[in-house]
Write a structure and sequence with these properties.
Elements lengths: L14 H28 L6 H5 L1 H42 L4 E7 L4 E8 L4 E8 L4 E9 L2 E11 L1 E7 L4 E9 L5 E9 L3 E4 L2
Antiparallel strand pairs: 1-8, 2-7, 2-9, 3-6, 3-8, 4-5, 4-7
Helix pairs in contact: 1-3
Length: 201
């Protein structure tokens, strides 16, 4: 093996020279950062040299592209959120239109009909009824266990939506009468806490 020649101590840089070189390198890096990197990457031109060299315009274009990309991303997120809201709303609307029972019956001129729900006290049932072509008089009431109650009455009505809250255990429902001069059909849609539906008249 051969021994490597030892460097001449006189040829080695002194601590002062190393410090000076480090300071010069740091200063050069700072100059490059301020004069080239900031204008080219971010459009920040502190020395105005970047604009002379065309670097500032490059940085402004990059910043603009980044802003546009962020705006596109936010717009895409908003569109997705809107589509999700529409989907959920449609699902809720579809769910809300599901009825437990639906029945239709015809009334000739002057004819009446009574339909009742068998309900326990405190039970609740939602309803919607409408006529095919015409108006009816109606009486929404309840009876049973020696009790009776009138919830609501109407004359010349085409449709109605609401809720029955049973005041007591018994039969709760509608008496309809056709007061027009032509036959019509009544459709009754129901859902809720009842055990039976029956025609009582």
């Amino acid at each position: 093996m051969y021994n490597a020649e030892k460097p001449n101590p006189a040829e080695l840089p002194s601590s002062a020279q190393l410090l000076k070189s480090t300071i010069i390198a740091a200063a050069a890096a700072a100059v490059v950062l301020i004069a080239i990197v900031l204008p080219a990457e971010y459009g920040i031109d502190l020395t105005r040299l970047g604009r002379v060299l065309g670097l500032t315009e490059m940085g402004e274009i990059k910043s603009q592209l980044a802003d546009e990309a962020e705006q596109d991303r936010q717009a895409a997120e908003q569109d997705q959120s809107h589509l999700l809201d529409v989907f959920i709303s449609a699902a809720h609307a579809q769910e809300a239109e599901v009825w437990q029972d639906e029945l239709s019956f015809e009334l000739t001129p002057g004819q009446g009909a009574e339909w009742k729900l068998v309900m326990d006290q405190g039970a609740s049932a939602e309803y919607r009824w409408y006529t095919s072509d015409g108006r009816v008089n109606y009486d929404l009431h309840g009876d049973g266990s020696g009790k009776s109650i009138s919830y609501k009455k109407g004359r010349g009505v085409e449709s109605e939506t609401g809720t029955i809250d049973a005041a007591f255990t018994g039969n709760h429902g509608w008496f309809f009468r056709n007061r027009t001069s032509a036959p019509l059909t009544v459709t009754l849609q129901l859902r809720g806490a009842y055990t039976d539906i029956k025609r009582t008249f």
